């Protein structure tokens, strides 16, 4: 009895989920990368080895050393510190952007998929219209209208991601809505809110989680891309796009800034992707069953 | 759960009253002029081949598929044009169990939530509810199944859970669509025994929709045979199956193989397949496949004839078939 | 080939599936013979191994499945010794399969005529176009399709379920194989169509002496069609008998339970027999009789050792208590 009670006591659901996510190597990798990014982003300035904006003119464009672990940039600033601060900026923009995209896409997708008819036509047309703009052109247009603010960047990225979330939600809602259990619920007398909230929504979240995890790094990439082009975040803020841009100017003198920034982007993308795929498997109640 | 006595409220009004109901999907006349009565506490089997419109008729009676014309009253609710409140009352009094038990259970809810959901939807006070354990016990499932997800149940177990869900609100009518589909013989037998016992215990009327004559013959008192959207014969199961008045009923009875080698009958009584419900034949819809069809059958649509003894048959020659049995 | 060789001989056949890297035995030493021109029914609940057995005869086991003991001969020839080309000619030419689901077995992108022609070109490359076409028309007519020429031009989705099953049977008959394996051929069909398909199979045997292995869970169809029946449970044959004897006096408790579980409007008053529990899965370890856990008569002798298949005249039964319980 005691043993059972004790075991029950420790079973906090969140930890169970983490343990199951970490059950495979890709899950461990994804989890580690994301946790590391979060820690770096949250603690930011408190843990950078140097001031990311301090110039060290004697040590410009150096390779990795014991003082500057990843080397320095063209002004002798510590690359590691700049990348760490960059992670913070990237997430500061990508997370709210994707969150807005998810919520807006989810609502639009639910409405279109479940209600169908005219609502569906209108939503699909709007999503098509957004998607038909190339993201960068959209960004250029909006940012030149709104000015170069962070909020503008967040909104532009969010808008660019709404169609993908909207479409995925709509498609899953449609396929779930056709399944007999929705009819069975209706026959029990369940109203639309209950059917959508209790029965449809839980069955469409797993593709959305994967999509969110995949879209977060692309939001980071888009944000860096905009900064690289001189839109959004401006130098000397150590945004990854800014660091990359600075690095490209002097790539013949030192490849390190470009190399390490790209590595940071790549690891971020891989980490989120692996975590997303793992979460999808873990959250699916049916995974592991043999049919 | 309170033992409210349903029998006390009986009036002359039948539980289900359908008059000249038609349910068309574009050009497809799935249900094409059906008149049907089911008394409170009565059991009716609706039998027919695929495309006969039997499932559509059942769904129309429950208001799940809108009728194109005619009138349907189920459990005192005028189903066509019923408002939200009337509809909710209808859903409380008339429940359905679906053909595919796994697909009809919300996959992310555990059995416990699935079983209490009807009560939450209809805000049934705690005191008037059956507990999860009681419901599981009613359908002969051990209490530990409460924690399982639908995909962890076998076909027979999932079927029992959907039966428990359907009876949780103590409906007056239960519609069972192919309740033994996909089950092995033993599991199917257990479900049929259960339905028979439950409906007798609770005093529930039920409508069983199936293509399987034996299931109906075993489980219900009355039978209605559907062909191309119409009821061609109706009456007490024993009388109808032992002495069919409609050649189609006779053909069905002959077609069902008996688990008895001595029963013989390897020659099929009718050949070919039913025509499309898009273009039903003129006259009697069965005439192109009927071995006894006459010119009259080809032109004149037979109306249901009252044969006495609670029997009806839509065949010009039904009285003759009662006198000289079909062979 | 020796004259005494039966059309199909299954000897001590064991089939093992690899699931999650571990072997799971689906058939445990099944032995059966089907005489020339006989219709043998194989009945049992889902998961008893009857479809595996049907597939094993044609060497058509699903991926992961392999014969782990024993073998199959058709007209004396070891099916598992045939090489690539010989195996191809054997399948279709000497033994053919009729599947449960006629829709997935036909290619949706080609007409029935094209698909029939493909089979003919493989097996009879020398035949002229006209001869192939007339043979195809013959076969479609033979299975009771009213307008064979129209069916030849049709795509599978244009046919009804009954028509598709007839087309599948036409495929099986195309090369006049002396042996047919029918795996639940009528399960997806309406009763009137089912009756017609059963009559067609019966006629094939009566007119052409075709040997048929008829796999079904429907005891009614088996009673109507078959000469002899083998009852399977948990990958084993538990009883074989002449169809009349089996239905009149089943010896194995499982057979009795199966027969008692079938509803009938002719016996309305009776409570149906149900079997408690579920069959042991492929993963379960079974000591003694596989049915013992669900058998109302099971005693110590039943779990001590696997009961042998006892021969009683023309029939066999795998139950140590068959004398007491019958």
Can you walk me through this structure?
- The complex is a heterotrimer of chains A (291), B (327) and C (326).
- Chain A has 291 residues and is an all-alpha fold.
- Helix content of chain A is 74%, strand content 0%.
- Chain A is built from 11 helices and no strands.
- With 327 residues, chain B is an alpha/beta fold.
- Helices cover 31% and strands 21% of the residues of chain B.
- Chain B has 11 helices and 12 strands.
- In chain B, helix 3 runs parallel beside helix 5 and helix 5 packs parallel to helix 6 (185-202).
- With 326 residues, chain C is an alpha/beta fold.
- Chain C contains 12 helices and 12 strands.
- In chain C, strand 9 and strand 10 (236-242) form a beta hairpin.
- The longest helix of chain C is centred in the middle third of the chain and has 18 residues, at 191-208.
- The two termini of chain C are 41 Å apart.
- The chains are: A mainly alpha (291), B alpha/beta (327), C alpha/beta (326).
- Chains in contact: A-B, B-C.
- Chains B and C meet through helix 6, helix 7, helix 8 and helix 9 of B and helix 6, helix 7, helix 8, helix 9 and helix 10 of C.
Tell me briefly what this model is.
The complex is a heterotrimer of chains A (291), B (327) and C (326). With 291 residues, chain A is mainly α.
Tell me the layout of helices and strands.
The complex is a heterotrimer of chains A (291), B (327) and C (326).
Chain A: H1 2-10, H2 13-21, H3 25-43, H4 79-115, H5 117-132, H6 135-146, H7 150-177, H8 180-188, H9 192-228, H10 240-249, H11 256-283
Helix pairs in contact in A: 3-4, 3-11, 4-5, 4-7, 4-9, 5-7, 6-7, 7-9, 8-9, 9-10, 9-11, 10-11
Chain B: E1 16-25, E2 28-38, E3 43-47, H1 54-61, E4 69-74, E5 77-78, H2 84-93, E6 94-97, H3 111-121, H4 132-138, H5 155-167, E7 173-177, H6 185-202, E8 205-210, H7 213-219, E9 222-227, E10 230-236, H8 237-242, H9 247-255, H10 295-299, E11 305-308, E12 311-313, H11 318-323
Parallel strand pairs in B: 3-8, 3-9, 6-7, 7-8
Antiparallel strand pairs in B: 1-2, 1-4, 4-5, 9-10, 10-12, 11-12
Chain C: E1 8-19, E2 22-34, E3 39-43, H1 50-57, E4 65-74, E5 77-78, H2 84-93, E6 95-98, H3 112-123, H4 129-142, H5 148-153, H6 161-173, E7 179-183, H7 191-208, E8 211-216, H8 219-225, E9 228-233, E10 236-242, H9 243-248, H10 253-261, H11 300-304, E11 310-312, E12 315-317, H12 322-325
Parallel strand pairs in C: 3-8, 3-9, 6-7, 7-8
Antiparallel strand pairs in C: 1-2, 1-4, 4-5, 9-10, 10-12, 11-12
Helix pairs in contact in C: 4-6
